[in-house]
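Lecture notes, unit on protein representations.

Consider one protein chain, 322 amino acids long.
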Amino acid sequence: MILFFKSIYAIVNIYMMNLRTFDLNLLRALDALLEQPQVSAAARRLNLSQPATSAALKRLRDALGDPLLVRSGHQMIPTALAERIRPKVRRLIVDIEETLRAPEIFDPAHTERSFRIAANDHAVIAILCPLMHQLQHTAPRITVEVLPFEDDFERRLAEDNYDLAIRDRWAMRSWHHLETVFREDYVCIARRDHPRLSKKPTLDEFLAEGHVLISPAGRTQGVVDSALDRLKRKRRVAITLPHFLAAPVVVAQTDCIMTIARRAAVETVKTYNLRTFSPPLRLPGFEVATAWHPRGETDAGVTWLRGQVRKMATSKTARARA
């Protein structure tokens, strides 16, 4: 509907006339006359009589201060103004039709739609990977483009560059269209044959080892360090990495340990020779949420995708993975 009024304003602004003086009921007649510049042909398209269409043309000429169609031999040809506004009027009619059209029916089994999702590493591992495994059976022809979660995601989402964003809720807290899908906590990972760690490592054992930290910005202060500060203790961050992908490999091949979100840990221990254990100190969890553009409220495809993410996050399978 915003596009509707913007388009109206763009057309009306051409003639420096007041929108309040223009009869919007004439738009369909204007569109028909510009697309088929013959009164008889436009009348058939509008399902009106020729006199009624001629009367509409006269009112349009008076309102716009331009003849719009002029006779040339046996034909009517559009004026320069008519040619200039024709694509704008056509686009405006299409916008109105799309606005008033019945809700879209989305068929996941047959759709070939491509979805653009902004997500961080955790969301990809914890949600999107298991979701894509499921959707290859229920929606086999969809494609998903996962994009990096940029600092200016709000602008990108507002400009309609993403269908959905998935990340910790705090990072997206200022966005209005937001839904929490699950709550996450932390576990630690280490190689299974670690030479010093006991089955349930103590805080002293924990702090005696080097730690791996994911830090895209290069900072060495994480959620663990904030909790340790309250205990007046410190750990040694042996290596910081900008992305999650390499971190489990480092842990699997060294004596370093790492504290990560539980669902991501469960997925990585399947691939690498790792084990998990509970952190020997209290760590706050976090909420994972989805965010979407306002048009997602009425987009059947985005509504379906949000539902699939929600089901994956709360299903028995997801809880078992956690």
